[in-house]
Every structure is written in structure tokens, then in C-alpha cells.
Amino acid sequence: MEGGENENGGKKRGCGCSKQDFLPEESFQSCRSYLNALCNTKSRLRDRLLARSADHMELHEIRGRSQQEMKKRLNWWDIIWFGIGAVMGSGIFVLTGEAARNHSGPAVVVSYLISGMTALLSVLCYTEFCVELPVAGGSFTYLRVELGDFVAYIAAGNILFEYVVAGASVARSWTSYLATLFNHDPNSFRFHASSFPEDYSHLDPIAAVVSLLICITACMSTKGSSRFNSIATIVHLLVLLFILIVGLTKGNPQHFSNFAPNGIRGILKASSSLFFAYVGFDGVATLGEEVKNPGRDIPIGLIGSMLIIILLYCLLSATLILIQPYYQIDVNAPFTLAFQAIGLKWAKYIVALGALKGMTTVLLANILGQARYFTHIGRTHMAPPFLATINEKTRTPVNATVVMTLVNSIVGFFTSLDVLANLLSLTTLLIFSLVALALLVRRYYVGGETTSSNRNKLILFLMLIIGSSIATAVYWAIGKNGWIGYAVTVPIWFIATLGLNLMVKEAKKPKLWGVPLVPWLPSASFATNVFIMASVDGASYVRFGIWTLLLLLYYVFIALHASYDAAKETTDTTSAATATCLEDGGASQLHH
């Protein structure tokens, strides 16, 4: 807000902010009103727990709370480059070694293909939603419309936490790779504070500075960010092209002789870990509000970029095997030491440069996605609404971008890579699973139109799909080598999906672009994501539970009441506008 007063007439403090920017809702105007809100928590929970938004609400009323609109300046070319830049960071240089040596052997190529096709299923689900609901909230919006406020809030709170951890982790890795370029130990570019605990004693100002520079780029212009991302990604692809050429000229095809030393289980085990090399595209979906022609540009951009990434990952993993036998591959620095093994020690600088460029674009996509998630959450008042502000000059969410960058920088400045790596959780897989489930709900259920019979059958089949998918994943996780468990769970999943296809009438068709083979592809996406979740360590589930508990506390004491008041205000405004239209219409008829 410009000037010295806020919209309610209250004076702003010296920092330019007032209480109305953080908690403007009726429930927080006085101690009495807040206590009254807490006394009504039970009834408000009943009202909001399963409350579903609507497409037109998200596209107009909710988005309108930002007052300014983001500029629609992106096309399919921008989305393709953003997709590649968001996904292809340092993962290919790190994950491939462990997957090939410890699990799949030369069949790591097949593992990358399997995990890539699993990611592509999620991309298809995201694409349909992003075309139909091109707003900044991404998966938060999709889940809010189909699965309700509460599910969307818990999912968004967890994924924002993971975004922060991932952003801080990549920023510190940036410092490590920069040190490698100058033949230094990774910690040599950090300051050691002996008075701090060991895991927080290596202070990293470079990580903070890089994050702040990325923040400035993201705040200035989304189109400018796109140009920067395109240039950095092209440099990254040139490095990958160098690796491919070396592999083809120096490689030995005999290294593929023992193709799958650990059989199908080793291939699938590797696929579970390699899936994390494909995450990041969900942040690109938050750019939907800034795309010129969503019906054309989003499908081409999201699906096209993922197909390119799958191809490149398969070629790069094959190149690594051509250069060095799988049992000699170094787990920590596979490509660098593979080049050393064939006498190209200088190539490690090329690899480090490629990793730096890749991490830079990942950082940019990370902060763009974070900010737009937070912006739309602020619009719903589940987070402070000042985060929903769109800068009038740049038409970007400056407030949300700056806040998230400060959090990333603080975490990255103090926290070691080991701690950050252990904090990465299963949230991404959970979100992908929920989005696939939400797509099934969207296609087969429309409130007020779907019959109670079809609704009950939908619930039954969804429960069977969910239960059989979880049972298959658990059976895999406990390490059973037999096939009896799969002979029960997989047919149940198949019959439930077939029943949904044949016995429940599809309630909604996509207007512009839709996932083909519904319900099969969304159901398969849900099942495969749940299957991969079984490979996540138990500590991640504990961390997920703790963070979710903290989110629940914030929801019960703050977010529930803020979103309840905001929803009530929107309903009252809409009712008043409708009444005015009816009165005007009646007066016009009397006049005639």
C-alpha cells in the first residue's frame, strides 16, 4: 500500500507494515474477537475441513486479492527452458554413481527410463490442472479445488518446507563446486565459527550471496529470469554434450556385458532413488498465471521439457557406463573420476562448471516456485496476506520472493549439507500422489451434478486404488522376494481402476487439454508414486509427522480463522453483488 495509512485507515509503522498486513481478518481485531473465534473452532473446522473451492473463484476472486496482475509474458519456449533448468541440476552428477554401482549396474539406463516415465505421468496430471487453472498456487490450488482446504494447506506447508531445505542445500552445494573449480576443499570457502555446534559452524556467505542475487533476478522480471535461465541452461547442455562426445569416442561397449547384475529388483531399487533427479517441474507449474496461451504453451512446455530430460538422462548414464565399468564407478563423484580413469583429469573442471550452471537454474526455479506458492496461499489468508501483493512496477510477487529468499539464505548460511540432506523428505512424492488422486476426483465428481450412486462407487474404487497401492509398496519395502503379495494387490488395483472406468460416469471433460486414458494414467501415477515412497527412509516419515504437527497448530490457532473470515467475506460480497444485479434487473423490467 502506498502512503502512510492502510486500507482500514490505521497508521503504518516505520517499516511500512501494519498489523493489517499480517492479520487483517475480523477474528484478530481484538482479544475479544480472537477468543470468540477460538470458542467457535469446532464449528469452523466443520465448515472449512472439507470445503472445496471452485475454478472461477481461484481464477477471479482469489487472484483478484493481489490487486495487481502478473504480466503474461511467457510462451512454450520459456516453459521448456524453465522445465529443463528446474530439473537438471547436479542430480545427474551425484545420483547416477550410487544407482549404477550399488543397485542396477549398466541397467541404470533402464532405471532412468522407468523413473522418467513415472515422472512423466505426474507431469501429465499437472499439465491438465495447470491448463484449466493457470494460477500461481500450483498444486496448492489444484488440491484446494478438488480435495479441500485442509488437504491443500497441509500439502502446501510441507512442500514449502522442502523448497526451503532444497534451496539452502543447492546454495551450499554451489559453494562446494566453486571450491572444486579452484582446487580447494569444499569448506575452504566457508568461515569456521568454533563457538557454534559442529553442524552449524561452517558459515557460508557465498550461499547467501548467490541466493540474494537470484532473488534480485526473480524480482525484476519473470521474462528477464527466463532469458537468464535459457542462457545458463544452454551452457549446461553444452557441458552435457561434451560428456556425451567423450563417452562415444573413449567408451568401451564391453562394459554393458553384465547388464543387470542384481536383476529386476536392483533396477527398480535404482529407479526409486533416481526419481529424485526428475523433481522440480512442479515449481514450473506455478508460472501458469504468467503464460500467454495456457492451452498451447503449458502442454508443449511441461511435457516437452520432461521428454528432453528423460532422453538426456538415459544418454548420460549410458555414457558413464561406456567410460568406466559399473563396479569401478565412484559413488560420490562418478563423472569426475571416470574422466580421470581415462586420463582426462582436466575434465573435472568441465563437470564442475556444468554442475554450477545447473544448480544456478535450479535455484532460480526454486525461488520462483516458492514465491508463487506463497503468494497464492497468502491470497487465501492461510498465510499473511501481505505475501499476496504483486508489485505494481515489476508485476512480480516481490514480498513473497524476498521473504522466502531470506529464509533460504539464513538456513543455507548456517546449516551443513549433511543436515540439509537428511531433512529432505517424502513431501514431493506425497504431493504428486495427491494431485493424481485430485485429477480422478475432478473427472468423476462434480458437486450438485454427480448422483449419489456414482459418488459412492467413486469413493469405493478410490479406496481400493489407494489401499492396493499402499499394500504393494509396503510389500516391496519389507523386502519380500516372493510374488504372492503382488498377485493379490496388483489385480485389486487393476479391477478398481477398470471398475472406475466402466461403472462411474465421467462428470467433467477438460476444456482445452486433458490427460489421455483416464482413469488409467492418473491411477498408475498414484500407484507408482506411492511405490517410490516405500523407498524413503523412516526418519523422513518422522520429520514429516513433526512438521505436519507444527502446521496443524498454526492451522487451528491462526490459518483456520483467517481463511474462514476471508471465505465468509467473499461469500458476503458475492451475495451482495448478486442481489444488486437482481434488483437492477427488476428495476429495468419495471421501467420497460
From TrEMBL:
<dbReference type="InterPro" id="IPR002293">
    <property type="entry name" value="AA/rel_permease1"/>
</dbReference>
<keyword id="KW-0029">Amino-acid transport</keyword>
<feature type="transmembrane region" description="Helical">
    <location>
        <begin position="300"/>
        <end position="326"/>
    </location>
</feature>
<dbReference type="Pfam" id="PF13520">
    <property type="entry name" value="AA_permease_2"/>
</dbReference>
<keyword id="KW-1133">Transmembrane helix</keyword>
<feature type="transmembrane region" description="Helical">
    <location>
        <begin position="458"/>
        <end position="478"/>
    </location>
</feature>
<dbReference type="GO" id="GO:0005313">
    <property type="term" value="F:L-glutamate transmembrane transporter activity"/>
</dbReference>
<feature type="transmembrane region" description="Helical">
    <location>
        <begin position="516"/>
        <end position="535"/>
    </location>
</feature>
<feature type="transmembrane region" description="Helical">
    <location>
        <begin position="228"/>
        <end position="247"/>
    </location>
</feature>
<comment type="similarity">
    <text>Belongs to the amino acid-polyamine-organocation (APC) superfamily. Cationic amino acid transporter (CAT) (TC 2.A.3.3) family.</text>
</comment>
<dbReference type="GO" id="GO:0015189">
    <property type="term" value="F:L-lysine transmembrane transporter activity"/>
</dbReference>
<feature type="transmembrane region" description="Helical">
    <location>
        <begin position="541"/>
        <end position="560"/>
    </location>
</feature>
<feature type="transmembrane region" description="Helical">
    <location>
        <begin position="267"/>
        <end position="288"/>
    </location>
</feature>
<keyword id="KW-0813">Transport</keyword>
<feature type="transmembrane region" description="Helical">
    <location>
        <begin position="74"/>
        <end position="95"/>
    </location>
</feature>
<keyword id="KW-0472">Membrane</keyword>
<feature type="transmembrane region" description="Helical">
    <location>
        <begin position="398"/>
        <end position="417"/>
    </location>
</feature>
<feature type="domain" description="Cationic amino acid transporter C-terminal">
    <location>
        <begin position="513"/>
        <end position="563"/>
    </location>
</feature>
<dbReference type="InterPro" id="IPR029485">
    <property type="entry name" value="CAT_C"/>
</dbReference>
<feature type="transmembrane region" description="Helical">
    <location>
        <begin position="150"/>
        <end position="171"/>
    </location>
</feature>
<feature type="transmembrane region" description="Helical">
    <location>
        <begin position="423"/>
        <end position="446"/>
    </location>
</feature>
<dbReference type="Pfam" id="PF13906">
    <property type="entry name" value="AA_permease_C"/>
</dbReference>
<feature type="transmembrane region" description="Helical">
    <location>
        <begin position="205"/>
        <end position="221"/>
    </location>
</feature>
<keyword id="KW-0812">Transmembrane</keyword>
<dbReference type="GO" id="GO:0005886">
    <property type="term" value="C:plasma membrane"/>
</dbReference>
<feature type="transmembrane region" description="Helical">
    <location>
        <begin position="346"/>
        <end position="369"/>
    </location>
</feature>
<protein>
    <recommendedName>
        <fullName>Cationic amino acid transporter C-terminal domain-containing protein</fullName>
    </recommendedName>
</protein>
<feature type="transmembrane region" description="Helical">
    <location>
        <begin position="107"/>
        <end position="129"/>
    </location>
</feature>
<feature type="transmembrane region" description="Helical">
    <location>
        <begin position="484"/>
        <end position="504"/>
    </location>
</feature>
